[in-house]
Amino acid sequence: MDPFKEVEFFIQVAEAGSISKAAERLGLSVSAASRHLIALETRLGVRLVQRTTRQLSLTEVGEEFYRRTRSVMADLKEAESVARDAVVQPRGVLRVTASLSFCLLHIEPLLPEFTRRYPEISVDVIAANRYLDVMENNVDVAIRTRQFEADNNLTIRRLAETRRILAASPAYLEKNGIPKHPMDLIRHKMLVYDYAINPTELPFRRRDETATVNVRSFISANDGQFVLKAALDDLGILIQPKYIVQDHLERGELVSVLDDWDLPRLTMNIAFQTRRHMPAKVRLFIEALAERFRKNDYERLWTK
User: Which of 104, 101, 153, 99 is nearest to 129 (CA)?
Assistant: First the structure.
């Protein structure tokens, strides 16, 4: 039997929770589908699926095998799609969603060259600080800061890691002093982004030392650009991913504080629908965005 077919069927079984449903998806008889699964387990020498008369579940080895093979098969299908679409003119509406900050800093700057190169693609950008349901909203590409999605129909591609830092304007720090220890933040005016996880609880780490500080927000907002503007206007100390404030740090408009302490970092990812045939417009946009990140070495810049 074809080893790739065996793995593809196993993935379908894991996602459907049923051999018969997986067989139906692939147009196989239940007996033929069962032979695929048995052949795979025999070849590997392990049991991947625990079968009873009432239910089917993955074994611990099966869970790990599913996690790894799903990613590999998604890459393989994408590679096949690249080969098939090589001579096809990409066209259609591309729907992209990300936070307002990411849209302004990384999607809009990408569009002049992208739309010049692919004039038959029109781009619909949805700036949203809450995660939209990709399937319900017919989104092609979503930028997210969580690595795992509850929806098995989504594929995740990592873009970069970024530190979360604290920064304030020189005028604010001159007037209010520079915090030397995380506990000093209790006495400062804090600018808080509401949609962060536990936005007022800051778990710091410095080598083997930890310090968790519960701060009180002086100004809070559901958009990072508002928080950034408040910091530039000398209103307090912000807590934001470094990618949002990098340019302002380089220009001296903001100064990072407690830089030797680290907050939990964020991983920026591209989420897109897992499809048997990825549309050229989606593949090309993902590649253009990933190339922008590689070319500018953003991860090195945002994690130092």
Answer: 99
